[in-house]
Write a structure and sequence with these properties.
It is a single chain. The chain is elongated and about 85 Å long. The protein has 14 helices and 21 strands. Strands 3-2-1-4-6-5 form a six-stranded mixed β-sheet, sandwiched between helices. It has a five-stranded antiparallel β-sheet with strand order 7-8-11-10-9. A hairpin with an 8-residue loop joins strand 16 and strand 17. It has 446 residues and is of the alpha+beta class.
Amino acid sequence: MASLRKSLFPDALSLRVEQILERRLFSMSPPDKPTLCVGLSGGLDSVVLLHLLAGLCQQRFVLRAIHVHHGLSANADAWAQFAQALCSRLDVECAVERVSLLPYAGMGVEGAARAARYGAFERQVCDVLLLAQHKNDQAETVLLNLLRGSGLRGLAAMPEWRMQNTQMGILRPLLDFTRQDLADYAKQYGLEWIEDESNQDSRYDRNFLRNQIIPQLETVWPSASATLARVAQHAAEADDLLQELAAGDLEHAVQGDAFDLRVALSPLRLRNVLRYWLTRHGLQLDTRAFEELLRVAFAAGEDAQPALHWRDRAIRRYQHRLFITSSQILIGQALALPWVMQSKVDAWHGVLSWQASEQGIAAKRLNQAVLELRPRLGGESLRLVKDGPSRALKQLYQEAKMPPWQRQSNPLIYLDGVLAAVPGLGVASVFRAEGEAGFMPLWRLL
């Protein structure tokens, strides 16, 4: 009976991968014939995955492969040639992309290689990128993240599926299978693969766990890898639940582009939704940085304007609200530009757009006048009400509760040399539309 199961196993593996692929493709509504791209290192795992997919119905999708040439090994050229030869035998297009680790200096060899590799993956034109990580890889990732002090998201390790960007998803269809399962498949079909000599170098963290720690654990707990992979599943479910809770709380915590620190939530839910908000803006703070953010947000004096700088971004507090900005607030110079509905203004590091509004500038004025963006110099005033007084911008900014850095970085809009509007404040009454098409200026920092 055991030999019968072994002989049937490769077909069962193919069936499972096909089911996972169909489910994920259905969920993302791809084109009629989606393009799949396999990350092909040439090792056992990726060779098995490519062979599996090449054996599926090719009329249903376009299959390609990408081999990332890191240039770290003397054998790197030979590995690229192996990947191309394998793809040629399977009638699969293969691209070899050479990457440099220099842009990722300071991340360590492992981290830099991973960052460069995923950068290459990001550049692929496909609907789904398939990676060959398996159950043992998942166990190693859980243990590695645990030792780094990661939270639930780190313990959840590698998801089977995630969207890498708006066009491409990443799928790992082998996470339910062990390295031995894949070796059995390769033996059944007589597959060949390459061995990266660096995998034996236990100076690297992951290799140390793989080669020394996990084998020792399995002498006492034979199912240690499977158990650690199961931890990842439990952590992923718990993290998904926290994300659902945060998504609901976010509706009450965020007003416009600001996070309201006075939101009526328990301390734990406040921390959870604040992390969620930061993540949605692409900010993954480590534990120390997050705790420092909480300290500066709640401990600083009411009149203070504390900021936490994280790489090229900053999280700034103004009154009881948090804002995410660039690390440096740059002030542009006077600049003339044509009136179009939306324009990226590199000199001001922002985007100027126009929204149809009865309270906006009359379209005929915009069409006929010279439009300029100018920085605030001090002393400017704006008459917002036709029969009202002209009021200083400083007073209007204070009443609008606009953060000081926005007052510095927001351009003032001049028409034929006269201040016509200030984004976030309004339009001078003499330029406002009256029974005709009008447009309100909107400014967004990049």
